[in-house]
Amino acid sequence: GALLVSERIDREELCGTLSPCSLSFEIVVENPLELYSGAVEIQDINDNDPVFPSSQARLEISESVAAGARFPLESAQDPDVGINSLQTYQLSANPHFVLDVQTRVDGSKYAELVLEKELDREEQRELHLVLTALDGGSPPRSAHVQIHIDVVDANDNAPVFNQSTYKASVRENTPSGTLVAKISAYDLDDGPNGDIIYSFSSHTPAKVRELFTLDSATGELRVKGQLDYEETKLYEIYLQAKDKGAVPGVAHCKVLVEVVDVNDNAPEVTVTSVYSPVPEDAAPGTVVALLSVTDLDSHDNGLVSDVNDNAPKSSQDSYDVYVLENNVPGIPILNVSATDPDLGRNALLSYTLLQGDPTVGHIFSINQDNGTLYLLTSLDHEDQVEFSMMVRVKDGGSPPLATNVSVSVFVTDVNDNAPTVLYPHPNTTATYTDVVAPGTPAGHMVTKVVAVDADAGYNAWISYTLLQATDSSLFSVGLHSGEIFTARQLREDDAPQHTLVILLKDHGEPVLSASATVSISVAEMVKEVLTDLADVAPANDHRKHVTFYLILAVILVSAAFFITMLSVGIFKCYKWRQSKELFNSSRSTLYRTPGPFHHIDAVRGGFTPPNFYHQVYLTTDSRQSDLLCKKPFTSSPLGSCQSTMRNGEPGLYHQIVGTASRLPTPAE
Fold first, then answer.
1. Euclidean distance between CA atoms 265 and 303, whole angstroms
2. Which GO terms describe its biological process (predicted)?
3. 586: how many CB neighbours lie within 10 A of its CB?
4. Tell me: the pLDDT tens digits for 632-651?
């Protein structure tokens, strides 16, 4: 009597949407024979997904639709029943629409889109939403449909001109068809709502329509008739742009057309007779007639012609320009400005650079039209500090008149040169060793580092510091003099050889530096030092044979110096006696004429190169000696030594002057 399932049961196939779903049957029982009726209820399980009619839905909604409008959506179907059937819908997040789920009489669900925020096609042309259908199973089954919404344009935007007023100028003899101006407007709408037609405004005078024509599609305003400056000098034309919507939007603009005068009218002479006929006895100077000349043209076209009677005049007679050295080639450094009160070609100015110095034409160039002076190359303050040139400003008259303007270009120094060590010489194989005796007290000057800087001013001010030393407590260096002193008294246990590294820095920005190495020996006699140097010197020193000649040269120079000084002494005694006799013979003269100048050149060996010298000038009548430090005659980097001594290092200045006035002795 067991009732078994003979095949798989599909409730949706047997009963569809009917609920409950039951199958009726009858059972016959024999012995005794009996008939029984029965029914089996088929219970539903969630074995079906909701299904939309299509995977995509498309809607067209006008941007003019007000908020609150509803748009029904196609419903999904689920063959399951009860709680397993379709229960609800969900909509993807968006700023414009919300979803309203409604229930029909039979209990089925359907959804409607509700516009919550008005659409704007100009802001967003289309929207993409996702609608999801969910049943009540556990877990729930779902289906999705893509909703594509096209925002339909409404004529809610009027045309807009890119500017409210246009300005143009045209000559009065301009031929017909010449373009005067082009107006432009845009409309954010699409289709006919965004198509623009240009036209004259309704209140445009008929005279303007006769003289000008407007292209309705492109907005080009062209000359149509014959313009006459003497009739009308300015036209104020009002135009409009209109779209093709059902209720068209309109925008307006204004075009100001200035008519430029041309010389198309000849002068007219009017004669007004005063006496007619003129009496034969009329006195000289009697007014016979009045003449007046008129010209309908304007400005220059209506005057008596100009005569080139004014030369160009510059705003300045001379210009001083300061340029940093190491400049970038091709930069403008000056604009020479000039004016000419004449008219037309007589006032047309041109600028030329006079080639007084042949180097100026390779370094500078001037624009002939506007007077802009350009620097063609990079300048070097150490090479040349100043350039002088003349700029000629010439008008276009016949004959032309011209004015010359003086231009001086000063090259300003930058710190582009590091200090150069003169002593001890860094690029030589010879070893310079200074000697100091044991027991030397503190404060004794041992030697001096001599250096120059090719820059000028503050950039050439050199400071000296002790960078490295065999014994840092034994020696010190003057900050601005470069003089090396003993910092304490030398002891017997001090090292016999000392090597000092001196750091030389200038005061420019950025700071540039160099270094000098000084060797100092502690010895009683020079012989000990010479012995030490012989140990480190090369075996074959070809310069040792020159020593004899150097000593001989020193002797000869000393002898010449002695003879010269003796001659000067005798000559001064002679002059003194002569002046004394003259003074005794005549007391009427209070002052005497100074005698001729004498100069002595001296070069201190080892400290300066041969071309770096000083001259000492003395007068025979001076009560005291006056020293004059003369500038070097060459344009070498040593040329800034004079500035260095004047500006930043008084000690070094006096040291060098004193040295220059003393000749070396044979012992030295």
1. 12
2. homophilic cell adhesion via plasma membrane adhesion molecules
3. 8
4. 333 333 333 333 333 333 33
